[in-house]
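It would be a great kindness if you could assist me with a short task in structural biology. The matter concerns a single protein, recorded as an amino acid sequence and a row of backbone structure tokens. The record follows directly beneath this note:
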Amino acid sequence: MPNEDPQVLPEASPSASRGGRISVVLFVIVLAVLVAVGAMVSRSEEATSSAPSSSRPAGSGSTATTIAVAKTEITSRLREILKVRDRALLARDAQLLSEIYTVDCKCLEDGRALIRQLRKENVVWKDISTNITIENTEQVNDLLWIVVATVQTPPVRIETEAGRLVRIVPAERNRVRFALAKPMNEEEWLLGHASSLS
């Protein structure tokens, strides 16, 4: 992802830094609760699987198929999230970010701040297109998945609104761990956290 990516913003103010720390703490708390719930669900599933086979539902053999379908849904949604993010940056439309991030995701505030900065400086990004290669998907529980992927971005042109080239950000390739969550009352999976593994 380009260095101007909302993951890291130059010259963050102390209040933004405190807000970022609060977001991280809230995310860690939510993640801990989800992991605890996942552990309880997994224990109850183990108890169910140790029950006599006559008490198991007839469709229990389709668990592998269900997990495969869920993985496909998660990876497809992650690709969609990154496309919407690209579109938000190209259009400098911060409202699009609310459709893809959890409310406590640091990426949400960082993305909004980046778009404000682009508008303030009267510059636009051109040719941004994020591509990912999925390396691993892991279901933590029914509400949380972890996806590790290689993220590639082509060179990005930064231009004035009049079309004058300001600079070109070189292509990048990074390994990133994404946490996708499905908050209560949400129909879509949302990005709750992204961290670089490189």
User: Anything to note?
Assistant: The radius of gyration is 20 Å. Residues 155 and 171 are 4 Å apart (CA to CA). The mean pLDDT is 78.
